[in-house]
Amino acid sequence: MATEKIDLTAPAEPVGATAEDTQKTVAAAEAADADTTEDNPGQGSMLADGLNDRFADEEAALAADKAGLEMGEESAEEQAADDAAAASQEAALAAMNKNELIELFASKIENEPVQTLRRTVEAIKIAFYKRHRAETEAARRAFVEAGGEETEFVPQQDGCEARFKELFAVYREHRDKYMSEVEQAKQGNLETKLAIIEELKELVNSDETMNTTFARFRELQQRWKETGPVPQADVKDVWESYNFNVENFYNFIKINKELRDLDLRKNYESKISLCEQAEALVMEPSVVEAFRKLQKLHDEWRETGPVANEYKETLWERFREASSRINKQHQEYFEGLKSEQMKNLELKTELCERSEALLAGAYTTRKEWNKASDQLLEIQKVWKTIGFAPKKDNNRIYERFRTACDRFFELKRDFYAGVKSEMEHNLALKQEICEQAEALQTSEDWKHATDELIALQAKWKTIGAVSRRHSDQIWRRFRAACDRFFERKAQHFSAVDGEYEQNLQRKQELLAQMRAADIHSGGFDMIKDFQRRWSEIGFVPIKQKESIQKQYKAVVDEMFATLRSSERDRSMTRFKDKVSGMKGDRRLRSERERLYNKVRQMEQDIALLENNIGFFAKSKNADAMIAEVRSKIERAKREMSDTIEKVRLIDRQQAQESKQEQE
Prior knowledge:
This protein is mainly alpha-helical and about 675 residues long. The chain is about 75% helix and about 0% strand. It is built from 20 helices and no strands. The chain has helices at about 55-65, 75-80, 85-90, 90-95, 100-110, 120-145, 160-205, 210-225, 235-250, 255-280, 285-305, 310-360, 365-385, 390-440, 445-460, 470-515, 520-535, 540-580, 585-615, 620-660.
């Protein structure tokens, strides 16, 4: 299977295998930094560091097969070869580099029989292609990280691989030659054994003495045992023919009874030994090894001559019973193995379904993709712990799992390709912001520059992430421009603070003068002078601004109120003198009526202004307009109050005149 870049095939599964190594290749540098602000899309798409760039034996075998290094079917001679040495050196192979593996391969070909090398060559081939694939994927990741498109990656020619293929071709040539020689030897053995059978037939009609005939029979038996195996297709027929003619020799040739009994006794003892060896196989720890040894015992049984008729059935039943126990254990072992493989198939099917569910997910963010990737990598680790499925299903279920993994990481690569483009666009936007900030960093228009920089900072937050490679650099550039401006601004206003404190003190002194001033003598001109002097004093510290302004307003309002009160008194005095100079009811009534009408008009005006306040509340600049209207209302009320007071003066004047007339 693949971790992030997948190229897998399940190899042919030998009977009796106990485990399956399906650890997936670690194939590109996209292990996404899931929870970082500036994700690196080139890291997290294809690499699972937890698997340490190790390839499964299945993948390495597939890579070797694709390179034209198939091993072919295992011959009986290779199967029978002692593979203990190959098993013992597997750990050593894992620590070797490619050159060391090539040297070992060449040494084995030169110094060891080719029929004993199959297991060793298979192990060397797997180890070599694990390293070869790991180097190829490392080069692919480096190519992608450098900005290249993964689809454009072409691996460089590997001189080690070329040398390995040359050695494999030599091994294959030696093996083919050996297998050809083995087949030729088997054919020669077949011809030899057929000739021995013909000689056995001729013994029946021989005119030689009994001793000579029996000596020739012994010689033929020895020649038969010394002759090697024959082609598998002829084994049964040749043995049956040989056994028939041996039996025929014993039954129909008139030989010396003593010699015959001696030979039968020797065969009896041999078959007793074979029975004991077969019975002892029950204690063999390895069921497979016990079954293999039993086959050899059966071969020896067939090569051993007959025994006396009274022992023939008994010995065979004993040997057959021992064989049945071994065969039963062998059958139970492989039935259990089959059951285990069916469970493995169920577990792997479940993992395929989980992988396909992850594949069907709709992921729109780096965090979602990385979370799904972690889940799939965990599934791959679980897959590695599960043994083989049944041979007929192993390739199919492996291909299904590999397809789901490949497709998932292919989609992830596509997503990160889009993310990369988006990040490049974000980088361009942030570079523009940096340029604008750098243009403002020397500005002395403090208010405008401050507003602009704050707006740029807000805009920065709305722009997405950039690649980690540029993230810190672009952020430091932007922050440096902002920091430089605000440091200059702080230095500038720290010098201004002393001036503001002096202004505060001057305004406090002016307030004291305003409170002590004789406003009656100075009048409105004095107030205007105070206002001018106040406005000429500059800013005060912001914390005291509102307080000092309230004090100033209160003093000015008090001064105006004092002047207005004095003006009202003078106005009322003048009106009082005016009324005193009026003689006759007609003039007084006329003045009273005028003032009364004026009061009525002002009441209407006040009511209208108060009504307008409700409309102004719905318009822009409402606060300023409402304040102006309220000011007009207050002035109108004061004027109306003064007018009412004047009406009362007229009424008192009229009352006084009426009283004087009555007296």
